UniProtKB/TrEMBL annotation:
GO terms for molecular function: cyclic-guanylate-specific phosphodiesterase activity. This is Diguanylate cyclase/phosphodiesterase. NCBIfam families: GGDEF. Residues 3-253 form the EAL domain. Signal peptide: none annotated. It holds the Pfam family GGDEF.
Amino acid sequence: MSQTDNNALLEKILSNGLITPYFQPIYDLSNGEIYGHEALSRGPMNSTLFSPDPLFTLAQQTGNLHKLELLCREKALSKFAKLELKGRLFLNVSASLLGSPDHQSGMTLAILNELGLDQKDIVIELSEQHPYDHNGLPRSSVDHYRKMGFQVAIDDLGVGYSGLQLWSELQPDIVKIDKHFIQGIDKDEIKREFVRSILTISQRLNCLLIAEGIETQQELDQLIEIGVTLGQGYFLGRPVENPAFSTHPYLAKQSQRRSQFQEDHAETVQTLCRPTPSLQENSLLEDASQCFKKQPDLVAIPVLNSGQKPVGVVRRHQLHELFSTPYGRALYEHKPVTNLLSSDVLIVESNVSLSSVSTLMTDQEADTLNNEIIVVREGKYIGTGHLRDLLKRITELKIQNATYSNPLTLLPGNVPIHREVSRRLLANENFYVAYFDLNDFKPFNDFFGYSIGDEVIQLVGSLIKNQVNPENNFIGHIGGDDFVVVFGDLDWQQQCNSILETFAQQVQRFYNENTLQEGGVWTKNRQGDTLFHPILSLAIGVVHPNPKQCTNHHQVAELAAQAKKFAKQQGGNHIYLQPYLTAHEPEAES
């Protein structure tokens, strides 16, 4: 289609209102409930301007961007009201539109009133991809929307150079992390650190964080582990014209599992949580004073809104200072606690790992570092933890890990391995157990000596640690040359193949030129017979336990040992997969 035809098509779209709104869900990752929908606009079906990129690009080139956006906004609001969709509606708005003389102030509010919608359910979403630098983004325009009751979000944080500056200047209610930092986050530590940092900033600024572009279960699980509570993406739901979105089944199932097992999960902040008195926003400072008087060891009292969600704390020393001033008590004791509210407090979901909480605590600025941790479940207050308890528990876990770890590789030994397998069986998780063992290791040890043998064992441990993603998998060292990896990742075979390929290359450095040319070493056995033993290779036996039939870690260990046996029989660097059916013959080979 020619440029002239496209221009004519755009004019037709604008004249006849040929825009169809699509809606993509935004989920609460903690429970699977719908948080809201982002409105996305499409042109006529099967036309060159159906997709948003060519549509909005042409509108901008022809000076029709404002007219198109206003049309899209009106269509989205009307359809949102007609479908009676749950949660908030996110409307994409061009920055240049806000500062333009063509912008019709109050138009959105007028449409809402006509449709019977509440402006508190509407989020004005500003994208870094829009041309801020052309016309600028006046803070007054953003404040204009906020004063009318709208929330403001920054989209695609991280795409442009100005993201953090915009965050600082506009002080949005919501920030969306660009999909670039979400894609592959389960395999990229740098991206994980970026998201953790942004999460820390958002919590400190009392700003909601939404992860965009979630396309795999592994990315979703990683974000939940980090503590991100809102997300959208193709894995959760694609944009559709007539959504019938309800509670997300995977998120709901995970939420139920967390609720069921969090008390037994020693690695979550749930273990630090203690019941602590709380106050409501309309409680008086005198109520807080009485609360502190009854509990002398209490240093801070959480303050909750009407939905039982924490909004901050009242601290003992601040209240004491206020009441100690002349007429301080008389002037303030009948004032609401919100007059002395401190919002610089760490609020975390009960299923967040202790290591993640530790990172959030240490990332705080030194002058604002606080001791209390407010623990919530699905956003609602359940109790508080303390920095002292966090440090104590982490120390205990480190000591426990050292007690049960292998001294040569410092990897967890039998007890932690068994606990991990039992935990996954109990949680009905889908996982694989890989048993690693060196072929012909004893003759190698006899020929080269135990010191060199230990170096080979350390090499195997190092390769496994380097190739296996620690986030969703568990690495253990049973002893000697026997290692175990409990895989939660579906790409376990790719990771195992990488280990085998790297081992085959690096093990050669333990042999001299002659033994490499011969392909191995000659040694005598106990009977005095001289036997040839090929260059060391690694056998991996893998089982896929069925939690419905496999009731304990002993059965899994038996199956893994059988799989390892068959892997060793193949010779060379080899993986042998035994899907779980019975503890007898393996069914398949890879």
